[in-house]
Amino acid sequence: MEVRARAPGKIILAGEHAVVHGSAAVAAAIDLYTTSSLRLLPAGEGGAADAVELDLKDSGLTFSWPCSRLREALGQGCEARAPRQCSPDELAAMAKLLEEHEIPEAKIWLSAGLSAFLFLYTSILGGKPGKVVVCSDLPMGAGLGSSAAFCVSMSGALLTAAGAVAVGGSSQAKEWEVFEKDDLELVNKWAFQGEKIIHGKPSGIDNAVSTFGSMIKFKKGELTNLKSRNAVKMLITDTRVGRNTKALVAGVSERASRHPDAMASVFNAVNSISEELSSIVELAAEDEIAITSKEEKLAELMEMNQGLLQCMGVSHASIETVLRTTLKYNLVSKLTGAGGGGCVLTLIPTCILFTP
Ligand SMILES: Nc1ncnc2c1ncn2[C@@H]1O[C@H](COP(=O)(O)OP(=O)(O)OP(=O)(O)O)[C@@H](O)[C@H]1O
Ligand SMILES: C[C@@](O)(CCO)CC(=O)[O-]
Ligand SMILES: [Mg+2]
């Protein structure tokens, strides 16, 4: 039987990076998905023919590990309903397994995702032979939460195959089935462990919004669902400048340790912006004047947040170019996700008049 699970990417409207340091942030799921398909293969004699295969459609690479090698390096797996952290020994064992694959230098950034895969697969399914295919609508490493969507869809597929979460079981179902709340919590916890391998020190916002969907406020691991009363339209521009979330998060933490007081004030200001933005999003605006005033406030908060992201050192020349370009049309933009390149959000007002 084949199991398929999909999870969405996200945009962050306010609060990226500061959320790692305890500030509030606001994020929304977007309708671009990563899908993980898993087929358990009949086990042979436990011999060399038994393997775990991974086909990464977006990067055009396939991998295969003999089950016996995985069991030897990473053990027999654990209780699928009790998520646990990857140990430094396991990280080292996975790095060794990956060395044997000679990943092309130009795609070396995939190693973190491969380690997250090996950890999730062997922890949840032990050394069972299986084939996993991953494909995604999301650009990788561009700020739209590709790593979280990868970990969430993978955890969903693995937990379903392990029988650790309940699904309706109708193989004829045309629509995607949605997990129950407890099962979503479990998926989210495993995905967070995967994100830790990719991001180093994630706040948990990306895996949370990818698992639970909709628009959320997130602070210190606590999630609040936001009911957006009016549609908020955003244009997403991909600068196509590649970057790595782990390095950017580490860079902000280093700046915070060099200038603790100044950076605490920056994080505090971002917290106020996210809190204000989340309450504005929930305001019901009935007429054009009210909607315009709501959008003006959102735009101003996004502009302020972008200034503070510059203070944190995560903007980039390519991002500044998008800011200047959209400003010519009186449109406000900010980076989204980890910055350093990647994607930029532009608020598109409901009543728009282009006068460059
Ligand atoms: N479809 C995929 N196939 C293989 N690996 C993936 C896929 N999607 C994400 N990854 C892994 O996630 C890494 C990108 O994660 P990273 O956190 O740097 O960026 P992001 O999640 O796209 O952006 P952000 O964290 O700012 O939202 C890739 O280098 C790869 O290891
Ligand atoms: C940069 C960051 O705040 C968001 C990345 O989408 C990292 C995190 O919260 O884990
Ligand atoms: Mg990421």
Chart the SSEs and their pairings.
Elements: E1 2-14, E2 25-40, E3 51-56, E4 61-66, H1 67-74, H2 88-99, H3 110-125, E5 130-136, H4 146-161, H5 181-199, H6 205-212, E6 215-219, E7 222-226, E8 233-238, H7 245-258, H8 260-282, H9 288-312, H10 317-327, E9 333-335, E10 343-348
Parallel strand pairs: 3-5
Antiparallel strand pairs: 1-2, 2-5, 2-6, 3-4, 6-7, 8-10, 9-10
Keywords: ATP-binding, Cytoplasm, Kinase, Lipid biosynthesis, Lipid metabolism, Magnesium, Metal-binding, Nucleotide-binding, Steroid biosynthesis, Steroid metabolism, Sterol biosynthesis, Sterol metabolism, Transferase
EC number: 2.7.1.36
Catalytic activity: (R)-mevalonate + ATP = (R)-5-phosphomevalonate + ADP + H(+)
Plain-language structure description:
There is one protein chain. Strands 1, 2, 3, 4, 5, 6 and 7 form a seven-stranded mixed beta sheet that branches. The protein has ten helices and ten strands. 44% of the residues are buried. The longest helix has 25 residues, at 288-312. It is an alpha+beta fold and 356 residues long. The chain folds into two domains: 2-222, Ribosomal Protein S5, domain 2 (2-Layer Sandwich), CATH 3.30.230; 227-348, GHMP kinase, C-terminal domain (Alpha-Beta Plaits, 2-Layer Sandwich), CATH 3.30.70.890. Helix 2 (88-99) crosses helix 3 (110-125), helix 4 packs across helix 5 and helix 4 (146-161) packs across helix 6. It binds adenosine-5'-triphosphate, (R)-mevalonate and magnesium ion (MG). GO terms for molecular function: ATP binding; metal ion binding; mevalonate kinase activity.
